[in-house]
Amino acid sequence: MSEKRKEVKDLTDLPGVGPKTAQKLREAGIYTLADLAMASVHELVEKVGIGEETAKKLIEAAEEALGLDFLSALDYYEKRKSIERITTGSKALDELLGGGVETQSLIEAFGEFGSGKTQIGHQLSVNIQLPKEKGGLSEPDNPAKAVYIDTEGTFRPERIEQMASAVGLDPKEALKNIFYVKALSTDHQLNIVKKIPKLINDGNNIRLIVVDSITAHFRAEYVGRGVLAERQQKLNQHLRDLLKLASMYNLAVYVTNQVMAKPEGYYGLDLVQAVGGHVLAHAITYRIFLRKGKGGVRVARLIDAPHLPEREVTFKITDEGVRDA
To answer: Where are the strands (E) in 18-167, listed by range?
Structure first.
C-alpha cells in the first residue's frame, strides 16, 4: 500500500486517467488527488461527464493513494500539529480563539453594523502576510496571500494601506497579495469559491479566504418560507466548499454574518440572532458575537468552539487596525 501511495502523485498516475480525463477534471476544478478524494460522485458525473461507477473508482483510488483511512486518536493529534494560527492584532482576541485564527477551520463573526466584523477581515488579510514569528503565515520568498470576497461593497484598499504600514509591510505589496472580487449574486459567490483551487495551483500561496458577508445575497434573493429549503441547501453547499478548501489547503476561512432581531430577547446576544439558521451554525468551527461597548471599545463573545469555553474579551479598532483595548 505504501509503495502504491508513493507511485500515485498526480491525477494522471491513477488507473484509467489519461490526459483527456485529467484535463476534464481540471476544467471541473479538480487539480489534485486531494481535490478528487473530496469530490462527490454526483460532481464527477455532472461536471466531468463520466459514468457513476467510474466516478466511484476514481474517488476510491484517490482516497487510497492519500491514505485516507481510519487513524488512531494519537495519529490524528499528531496530524493536527500542521494547523497554524494567524494573529488578529489583539492579544485578547487571539487568546479568545485559543491563539489566533486557526487554519483548516471556518470562523464566523456576527453582529450589528459597526461592531468590527469587516475590520477584522481587513486586518487578517494584512496579518496573513507577516512572517510566522510575527503571527502571519508568510515564508521567505513566498508571501502568504488572501482572497477577499466582498458581497456588500465594504472592502476598502485605503484601510489595507493603513493597516499594512502599521505592521511594517509595504502597502502596495500588501494590496498585491490580496485577490479581491465583488460577488454580485449567490451563484456568482459560489462560483468564485470554486475557482480558488486554480489560483492555488497556479502557484499562489493562498492561506486565507474572507467572505464579507456570507449571507447577504442569500437573504436578499430568497425571501419567504416557500424558498427557505432551497436557500439553506445552497448555503450548505457553499459552506461545504469552503470547508473543503480549508481542509485540503491548510488555509483559514473567515466569514462575517448579518443578524436579525429576536423579539423575545432582552439584551446583547439575546436580542439578535445570526442569519443562516442551523445549517450555518453546524458548519462553523468558531462563532464570535461582536457588539459595541462603551468608549469605542468592542466586545467579542465566543459562542461556540470545539474545545474552548464561552467567554468575552474586549478590543478596540484604531487608525492602525485591530488592537487591544
So the answer is: 85-86, 101-102, 106-111, 145-150
Please work out, in degrees rounded to the nearest 5, the angle formed at the alpha carbon of residue 242 by the alpha carbons of 300 and 141: 85
Span 33-37, average pLDDT? 83
Q: Specify the DSSP element, H or E, that contains 41.
A: helix 41-43
CB 107 within 8 A of CB 117: no
**How many residues in the chain?**
325
Residue 111 contacts by C-beta under 8 Å, 6 or more apart in sequence?
117, 259, 272, 289, 290, 291
Taking CA atoms, 77 is separated from 71, 83, 104, in Å, by 10, 11, 14
d(CA 84, CA 234): 30
Name the H helices within 80-215. Answer: 91-96, 117-127, 157-166, 171-176, 186-201
Cell of 49: 461527464
8 A C-beta contact, residue 137 and residue 206: no
Element (H, E) at 248: helix 228-249
Pick left, alpha or beta for residue 282 (phi over 0 → left; psi -120 to 50 → alpha; otherwise beta).
Answer: alpha
List domains and CATH numbers for the chain: 2-66 (1.10.150.20), 81-324 (3.40.50.300)
Q: What would the 3-class secondary structure string for 254-298 be? A: EEEECEEECCCCCCHHHHEEECCHHHHHHHCCEEEEEEECHHHEE
How far, in whole angstroms, is CA 36 from its chain's centroid? 19
Cell of 289: 458575537
User: Whole-model pTM?
Assistant: 0.86
Closest CA to 109 of 298, 249, 307: 298
User: What is the amino acid identity at position 263?
Assistant: P
> Sign of torsion, CA 154 158 161 164?
negative
The separation between CA 254 and the C-alpha centre of its own chain, rounded to angstroms, equals 5
Q: Do 121 and 128 meet the contact criterion of CB atoms below 8 Å apart?
A: no
> Could you report the per-residue pLDDT of 75-123, keeping only the tens digit for each?
888 888 889 999 999 999 999 999 999 999 999 999 888 889 999 999 9
Residue 170 sits at φ, ψ, to 5 deg, of -70, 115
